[in-house]
Amino acid sequence: MVVTAHNAAESLPKLLHQLGRTMRSRGQAYHVIVVDDGSSDQTARVAAGLARNLPVSVMTHVKKEGMGRALRTGLLEAARHGGVIVTLDAQQAHNPLLIPRMLDRLHQGYDIVIASRYDDGGLELGGGVSRRLIRKTTNAAVRALTPLRDVRDHTSGFRAYRGDLLQTLAGKHGKEFLVHETGFASRLELLLKATSTGARILEIPQVSGEELRHDPPRRPILATLRRYAAVVWRHRVAAHDDSQPEHDEIVFPGARSVRNSERLHRALSVAVALIGIAATAPLMALIALAVKLTSRGPVLYMQTRVGIDRRTGATSSSSNRRQADNGGRPFRIYKFRTMDHVPENSNHQVWARPNDPRVTTVGRFLRQTRMDELPQLFNVLRGDMNIVGPRPEQPKIFADLRSKIGRYEERQRVPPGITGRAQVLSSYDQTLDDVRRKVAFDLEYVERRSVWEDLRIMFQTIPVVVLRRGAW
After folding, report:
1. All residues at 6 or more sequence positions from 257 whose CB lies less than 8 Å from its CB, including other chains
2. What ranges make up the beta strands (E) of 269-311?
3. 219 - beta bridge partners?
4. Is residue 37 classed exposed, middle or buried when 0-12, 13-18 and 19+ CB atoms within 10 A define those classes?
5. For helices 221-243 and 185-195, what crossing angle results, to 10°?
6. For 309, phi and psi rounded to 5 degrees?
7. Which residues neighbour 443 within 8 Å (Cβ) at sequence distance 6 or greater?
8. C-alpha angle 279/385/331, rounded to 5°?
9. E strands in 268-316
10. How far lies 412's CA from each of 39, 307, 428, in Å?
11. pTM of the predicted model as reported, rounded to 2 decimal places
């Protein structure tokens, strides 16, 4: 077991004695590695004293290096001996009685078992409404942007690992980079690295919360969110690079410059999205709370939209890999719900319009200020959209407009965007002529598209949002 500790002299004895009773009741041998991360109290001395009567060893960081580095120190030492490794902290937030159940799940074939506050039967206590909401929002974003679709609590540090999995990760990434992050984002980092090996991950419920801790942590929310975003971004870049062909790549004339241009557009969009998420995370948490308290239904509204068409240049049906021509790659767009909740019906897709009677009171304000679009920053990170581009349309409306407006499908030559030339220069669609005018603006953007054009449109968007003009 690996116990990370910082200024835990008071809580550590109780935890280690609980661990001993739990493991003895199971009749199982165990060893605890206490990693003292630069404590200013007597944590290391207390741990050394307990080691005289308990199977405990102590590793010490002279200076505080952060929870992630303490975790890395303990994991690397524990992984040398193989077997099963359980991680917890010394501040009494974790219940050792869950350990036998975690070990049983590993023996059933899982590679990682997480004690989760959000699994069915779990509970989170304390921490304040805003912090809990931010944690849940962050968890939802991580599930949407990474392979951790079935993990609800990626920030829990109470876990059980198969030792051979950690040995594999250390061999793949290098011991120094088994855990790169120094703070709480290290927990997410480990899970994402494990997914690259096909690890099986399971959650079991736990009751946890800051009011159970001997010394509740005080960590800046925005700094933590920025680190989570950086971890997700590194994972997506690594996954993208691994998916690129290394040999026998056919490069057509001009293809390399186009590819480099696309990378610049993506880099700009991702950078703006990360900054936007970090800056607006508290605001998004408040909006989510307001939506939830003032109307029934989910906080987020997800709807299928038509994205980029990557089949440009296909001239025959034999070169078309898709059976159905949807005009582009469908994806799910995220918004804060602004209307009374009605389940999405693919046979009933209509345009949004000003003064729509379906709009809630909070939703009307969100629409006027464009704040309902903030969750689309996560669509940008997923690669569904860029910051700038033509607005994506619903599939049936797309098919209808393509049959009525010439060159409409050419909008799909570039990724859709949150804002765009048409959005800053026109208003809501109310007639087919309005759509034709917006399509003309979109096609102009496609023809003159550049990073500088994207920057110009981003700056033009600011007064449009502030003065509540334009259309989304």
Report:
1. none
2. 300-306
3. none
4. buried
5. 20
6. -100, 110
7. 407, 410, 411
8. 120
9. 300-306
10. 57, 7, 20
11. 0.57
Strand pairing partners for 301?
A: 335
- Tell me the two tokens of residue 434: 């309005």
Amino acid at 452: W
pLDDT digits (tens, 9 = 90+) for 96-131: 899 999 999 999 999 999 999 888 888 877 666 666
Give pLDDT tens digits for 83-92.
899 999 887 5
pLDDT of residue 143: 82
Q: What is the largest CA-CA distance in the chain?
A: 83
396 neighbors 346 (Cβ within 8 angstroms) = yes
What is the per-residue burial (b if ≥16 Cβ within 10 Å, else e) of 82-106?
eebbbbbbbbbbbbbebbeebbebb
Q: Are strands 417-419 and 386-388 parallel, antiparallel or unpaired?
A: parallel
Question: Do the Cβ atoms of 93 and 175 come closer than 8 Å?
Answer: no
d(CA 385, CA 414): 9
Provide the β-strand partners of residue 201.
Answer: 112
pLDDT of residue 244: 46
Query: Does residue 117 contact residue 156 with C-beta atoms inside 8 Å?
Result: yes
307: left (phi over 0), alpha (psi -120 to 50) or beta: beta
Q: 243 vs 405, which has greater pLDDT?
A: 405
Cβ(235)–Cβ(192) under 8 Å? yes
